[in-house]
Amino acid sequence: MSKLLIFVALLAGTVAIIPSAELEPVQAGHSKKVFMITDMEGVDGIFDEELQCVPWKSPRWEESLKLLTGEIHAAVDGLYQGGATEVVVCDGHWAGSNLSVLDIDPRARLLTGKIPRSFTLDRSYCAMIFIGQHAMAGAKDGILGHTEDPEGIQNVWVNNMPVGEIGLNLMVAASSGIPTIMLAGDTAACRELHGLVPQAECAEVKSGVSRTGGLMLSHSSACALIREKCRRAVQRLGEFEPYQIREPVEIKVEYTTVGTRELPPQEGVERVNDRTRIIRGNNFMDAWYKF
Fold this sequence. Notes:
Elements: E1 3-6, E2 8-11, E3 14-17, E4 33-38, H1 49-53, H2 61-82, E5 86-90, E6 108-111, E7 119-122, E8 125-133, E9 153-158, E10 161-162, H3 165-175, E11 180-186, H4 187-196, E12 201-210, E13 213-216, H5 219-235, E14 249-255, E15 269-271, E16 276-281, H6 284-290
Parallel strand pairs: 4-5, 4-8, 5-6, 8-11, 11-12
Antiparallel strand pairs: 1-7, 2-3, 9-10, 9-14, 12-13, 14-16, 15-16
């Protein structure tokens, strides 16, 4: 079986799986190896960035890490109950230096630390899931919603459709023939994924009443829900296809006033105004490389 050369870029919570060649969709019967992207802002019990989410600096960071690790344990357990043969957990919060091998389920492998520019995934990967995922910037009642850099990026659109980290990661995975089948996060994040993959399994572990507050499940209840949704997602794998992106592709980025930056001059990149750039490509990855 041929292998896929990819780049894994941990950029403010966005993991880019970049294919080196055109690929056919993964077939459900070929493998049950799952790629799990983790983040912090969508974890049950998390509602304040400074108080809880800054690695090793927030007053409640140790508690936050326990909450995230508990959700990862539940997800790994559910994936294996559903028939997964292997699980790779990607440490996707901040610079990817949060999780410890002391605490990760021994059935999983942890992708963490400083990731090299290239990384190899073979065709055994059959699906991608999100654990602890937040909604896009500006999402209604999305707890700590943002898109990549909360201080630098205001909005992102793909083919005139607003997207956040969920959509961007989903589209990158789809470019490798990998479907997205499950998400654990708040109600706004689940709504965001269902807008792209209506049949996806979602564990709504909290529901926002503002950007910094919401109704939370107990940790044990959240973990039980995540376990069940992961189990169902793998069992239903044959119902999923990689997300289809209309080509050619246009990515529009609106930066904040403090985040405005100049992209290097290149074909396919248009400066609309001081804060907005349009990036065009023959396909999603062509545009993504330029972004």
